[in-house]
Amino acid sequence: YETAQPKGTIVVDTGHKFLYLVLGHGKAMRYGVGTARDGFAWQGSYRISNKREWPGWTPPAEMLVRQPGIPHHMVGGIDNPLGARALYIGSTLYRIHGTNQPWTIGTDISSGCIRMTNDDVIDLYSRAQIGAKVVVL
Fold first, then answer.
1. Could you give the residue numbers annotated as active site?
2. What does the alpha-carbon distance between residue 118 and residue 17 come to, in Å, rounded to a whole number?
3. Coil, strand, or helix at residue 121?
4. What is the dihedral of CA 63, 34, 103, 88, to 10 degrees?
């Protein structure tokens, strides 16, 4: 994987539905991801600001308006839409997180978050550091 990004950087290629963890020396770990659907895509460079195992989920107010039937909060666990792990992206509302819907990987499905299978997000979680750079293309 050729990139000018330093080792430890997470690069999300939304167009091809892959997330790369840069290992250096032309190598990276590659994971499949689900990305934002039309109207929710974004780009930029941020840092991992926090990491959580089996995170709770509180949808933003805008999502509650769009989808009034969803719960206002869900505790962490297997039924939680954030899955097994979450890496928080800066001060944004977005996360790199697991999913309890693995069939959505490779599609434009989210409201801006980056989805991974639970196995993949557990692996990334163990490798990525708080403060790591995240580049979303």
1. 97, 113
2. 16
3. helix
4. -70
Q: Write phi, then psi, for 63 (nearest 5 degrees).
A: -70, -40
DSSP string, 47-77: EEEEEEES--B---HHHHHH-TTS-S-B-SS
Q: What are phi and psi of 10, to 5 degrees?
A: -105, 125
pLDDT at 59: 84
Task: For 44-87, write each residue's pLDDT tens digit.
Answer: 999 999 999 999 988 888 888 988 888 888 899 988 989 999 99
- Token pair listed for 27: 């190598």
User: Cβ atoms within 10 A of the Cβ of 40, count?
Assistant: 14
Q: What is the pTM of this model?
A: 0.93
Give pLDDT tens digits for 13-35.
Answer: 999 999 999 999 999 999 999 99
- The torsion defined by the Cα of 91, 131, 37 and 93, in degrees rounded to 10, comes to -20
- Dist. CA 56–CA 44, nearest whole Å: 25
